[in-house]
Design brief:
elongated; alpha/beta; 20 strands; about 525 residues; eight-stranded mixed beta sheet; 15 helices
């Protein structure tokens, strides 16, 4: 029977074959789903896909559905969706319907016969083969009973993982708590446990609760199993991931065999919990779809009405802290303006890749202004205000806010009584410790980094070649300000080689200490300065 399914999948490929352009301007993602679904649920699923596809993206979406429906109206819905996408969508049906036991979605739970599981596995593997042959950059497998947040794919792509699922929560039985579709071990263990470790039911419940509580917080976490809403990179496809049954494992479900095979191939699995999908697991869940839509629309409106624009200057930051900085920033910014001051490394390409999907204005200076900082700061300011921002966050390429910032910054920008926020900056001397002495005590003072843009105000900068400050002088006189306890980590001093370079640079640009402190310059090379361990 299973070999028959594989034969069917090969037949599908002859229908799915399509040539892509030799050169792709944007990454291509194949959204893939075997579909046997009730029309009312399928309609919501397709609506959410359309919602993702409505806005201009830095990637191109293509679609592939294997139409295994028995409902005529479901077939019509798929074909209507395909027609709206023109040549970007394929809908394929088996030549001969397979006479298999139907799976029962019921009003309470789903019951899948074993043969249906491997039928679906063969469908999915046929789509993997199609994605590989047509050189797609990613394949996004999604079950047809999910409704996605419009930012789902943007977020998953930003994670830069070879295999990552978007979380959703389901009460698998009526009146039970909701649990995620990801797990840590075996078939569906939701708790951490060592080999041969024996724990009580009470301890199992405590560990399960801890795992679920962690996933309720927006983030990206490594897991042992996942499925149903998964982005897979071409690198993972080329390594041989598939849904084919592993013969010496009796786990139920093709996703479990996919995960075991991926782990054996050395590919870690992750879940992203920033934008949970909505699962229409049973018909009664249709009642909650409108609430989910309204909630996500409000989130979009909130973000759109309170845009946070990152403003940054950089020069040769590739291989330093630019990558973690941008990965952190993209979780809360809506736009970015970056001045590249004549870098000769991959800084520009890194920004374009890591900020994919976020409006980015990137200015490349042909002549460096690095030795005259106020000109750079004025240039950054002028280019930023041209974008008509709501809020401006001015950071350097080696500055990263602590993890909790992304969850709380919306609260800051939503406060109409505040125009500028002040934060403490911590100078890290290695990856885990910051320096604290009389000359290095920036963390004891609050400085402005986040400000509301007021078009009617006047803005000028201190005319200083070095240490001119990143913010306009006028904001220090604004009365509507607040001090935030959220902390900013500065990694510019965290590597010895960087400290030596900065020491030489300051002595060259400011040999008399006119713009700074000679004592501080000399202290840069201290062998054993007092350090304090950072605690998130």
């Amino acid at each position: 029977m299973f070999s028959f399914f594989l034969t069917i999948s090969v037949i599908f490929l002859s229908f799915l074959h399509a040539e892509l352009p030799e050169e792709k301007l944007r990454p291509t993602i194949l959204v893939a789903s075997p579909v046997r679904q009730e029309p009312a649920i399928l309609k919501e699923f397709l609506w959410s896909l359309n919602r993702i596809d409505q806005k201009e993206k830095d990637y191109e979406l293509h679609y592939c559905f294997i139409d295994d429906n028995i409902e005529i109206y479901s077939q019509i819905l798929l074909n209507q969706f395909a027609a709206s996408k023109q040549d970007r969508c394929k809908v394929v049906s088996p030549h001969q319907p397979l006479q298999l036991s139907e799976y029962d979605t019921g009003k309470d739970c789903h019951y899948w016969p074993v043969e249906v599981t491997w039928k679906v596995a063969a469908f999915k593997d046929s789509m993997i083969d199609y994605a590989k042959k047509n050189d797609y950059d990613f394949i996004f497998f999604i079950d047809s009973d999910l409704v996605l947040h419009p930012k789902t794919l943007d977020q998953l792509l930003s994670d830069k993982k070879d295999i990552v699922s978007n979380v959703f929560w389901t009460a698998w039985t009526p009146n039970s708590p909701e649990f995620p579709q990801v797990w840590l071990y075996d078939e569906y263990k939701l708790y951490d446990i060592a080999i041969r470790e024996e724990i009580s039911p009470e301890e199992e419940n405590l560990r399960t609760a801890a795992f679920c509580e962690k996933l309720r917080k927006p983030g990206v976490y490594e897991v042992g199993g996942l499925g149903a809403c998964t982005l897979i990179s071409r690198a993972a496809l080329n390594k041989g991931v598939s849904f084919e049954r592993i013969k010496n494992i009796t786990f139920w479900g093709e996703d479990r065999h996919f995960c075991v095979r991926a782990a054996a191939l050395g590919i870690p699995l992750f879940v992203d919990t920033h934008y949970p999908a909505y699962h229409i697991y049973r018909k009664s869940a249709l009642e909650g779809v409108e609430d989910y839509k309204r909630k996500t629309e409000k989130e979009e409106e909130s973000v759109d009405s309170k845009r946070i624009t990152l403003a940054m200057i950089m020069r040769n930051e590739a291989g330093q802290y630019l990558e973690p900085m941008l990965k952190s920033a993209r979780t809360y910014i809506t736009d970015a303006v970056i001045i590249d001051d004549q870098s000769d490394d991959d800084s520009v390409a890194l920004c374009e890749r890591l900020l994919a999907g976020i409006p980015l204005k990137l200015i490349k200076n042909t002549h460096s202004l690095f030795s005259n900082e106020h000109l750079l700061r004025e240039q950054l300011w002028n280019e930023t205000v041209k974008t008509n921002p709501d809020w401006i966050l001015i950071l350097d390429a080696d500055e990263i806010f602590e993890e909790s910032f992304k969850d709380k910054v919306k609260e800051l920008t939503a406060n109409n009584e505040i125009d500028v926020y002040y934060f403490r900056l911590y100078d890290f001397w290695d990856e885990n410790h910051y320096r604290a002495d009389n000359l290095w005590c920036a963390h004891e003072y609050y400085r402005p980094f986040l400000m509301r843009y007021r078009p009617e105000a006047t803005y000028t900068f201190k005319q200083s070649a070095q240490h001119c400050g990143r913010m306009p002088l006028e904001i220090h006189e604004w009365k509507k300000y607040a001090l935030s306890n959220l902390r900013l980590k500065h990694f510019g001093w965290a590597r010895k080689e960087n400290r030596e370079k900065k020491y030489k640079r300051y002595l060259e640009l400011d040999p008399q200490g006119v713009h700074g402190s000679m004592l501080q310059y000399f202290s840069i090379l201290d062998e054993n300065p007092p350090l304090i361990e950072w605690k998130e």
